[in-house]
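INTERNAL TRANSFER SHEET
From: sequence group
To: structure group
Subject: Class D beta-lactamase

Please process the attached sequence and return the structure record in the designated field. Keep the field labels unchanged so the import script can parse them.
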Amino acid sequence: MGASAVRAAEVLRCTVLMDEQSGEMLYRQGSCAEAVYPQSTFKLPLAMMGYDVGILRNEHEPLWKYQPTFNRSVREQKDTDPVIWERDSIVWYSQELTRKLGTKKFADYVQRFGYGNRDISGGPGGTDGLTEAWLMSSLKISPDEQVKFLRRFLNGELPISAHAVDLTLAIVPHFEGADGWDIQGKTGSGSMRDKAGKADGSRPIGWFVGWARKGDRRLVFARLLVDTKRYNETPISYVVRDSLIADLPKLAEGF
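Return from structure group:
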């Protein structure tokens, strides 16, 4: 399915499940090669960068104070540390992190990570590349690319220290799955842009990406939904997350 299909008012779905050790694709259904904005799933690579360069120090340091100039929603108006950042998906913390990284280091990490289309130029909707490239802007990634990237992270194949890997693993939220599965992952939500380049609330994006462990087995997953209706009560990312948590044990059973 090409980019024109995404622009059309059609539901875009993908679920992909990969064995972390072998790289075998265990389950793949939907338009999994279609790249869209990563939104807050990008907090995973941002954590890797922050710990690798030393801006982030451990699970609770640094604690950064909320500033009114950030102009964020009431939900985000609180002091935040790395655990709170990932758990509550605090956008301003990500932006403070990339400001401290600076454009050169940020761009270098994205390139060396081989993350999605690697485009952090910004631009669409007036977005700034350094602080908004991943937010309905220039950076895009497909579900296929998400699982390949996360597998490289879990296997120690990214150009970051083992210390950065361990600390990132420590702050990613855990969710309890059925049949003994421990699921770690990050949601993301936003919306597609219309032909005029404006955010289209009737085309919401929901992501859930991460990994799941049971015994000595670890699977990497990505689920994406781009819908054709508004989600006014439960955020689309929560719907996607909860459905994946419910489905994963069943998807893993047959393999």
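Handover comment: The beta strands are 12-19, 25-30, 174-176, 182-193, 199-214, 217-226. The helical segments are 3-7, 43-53, 82-88, 91-113, 129-132, 143-154, 162-171, 236-253.
Transfer complete.
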